[in-house]
Amino acid sequence: MPKVGMPAIRKPQLIDATMEAINEVGLQKASVAMISRYAGVSPAIINHYFGGKNSLLEATMRSVLQQLSEGVRQRLDETDTDDVIARVKAIVGGNFDQRQLDSKVVKTWLAFWSQAMHEPSLYRLQRVNEQRLLTHLKVELKRVLPNEQAVFVAQSIAALIDGIWLRGALAPSGIDGDLAQRIITDYLERQLPADILKKYS
After folding, report:
1. Which domains, and CATH codes, for the chain?
2. pTM across the whole model
3. 10 Å Cβ neighbour count for 20?
4. DSSP H/E element including 7
5. pLDDT tens digits for range 154-173
6. Which conformational region is residue 176 in: left (phi greater than 0), alpha (psi within -120 to 50 degrees), or beta?
7. Which end of the chain is more exposed for a tag (fewer CB within 10 A), N or C?
8. What is the DSSP letter of 3?
């Protein structure tokens, strides 16, 4: 985590520089010296406020996850509270928001996932993100499905989001957010009772 007292304008600058460096050369080659050049600051600034590259990656992912959470929340706020299907679609849509599909953000996600297996602080972030997604989905699905089935469908949708996202991230053409949402909507509608589908159609 960055130290208290870092100028507010500098943190976004460093976070953007971290993503730019990862996008250009990958996490392993994205040295503190390279990130500092992208940000237009000295390496000493990064070491002083973050203590090194791993803490800077953590701060970067916290920023990405906050943007993701805000995107989902905004979509939910704009959706009818009684329309369960639309609200699940809003949650899925937030995960495929164009800001999350930007090349540098995608590559930062991939770097984060690979490092989360080895860094406890990053692993905790991943778990928080995973649980937040499942909680959003279960809250909506439990309104129209029995508890056990709602949990199963929520876990399945989360797995589809991650799987489609990862496949797209590694594909030359990138992630097709519209296709992803159509695939997941098709799965969702197959899991819901006919009377629920009729109610929200």
Report:
1. 61-200 (1.10.357.10)
2. 0.89
3. 19
4. none
5. 999 999 999 999 999 999 99
6. beta
7. C
8. P
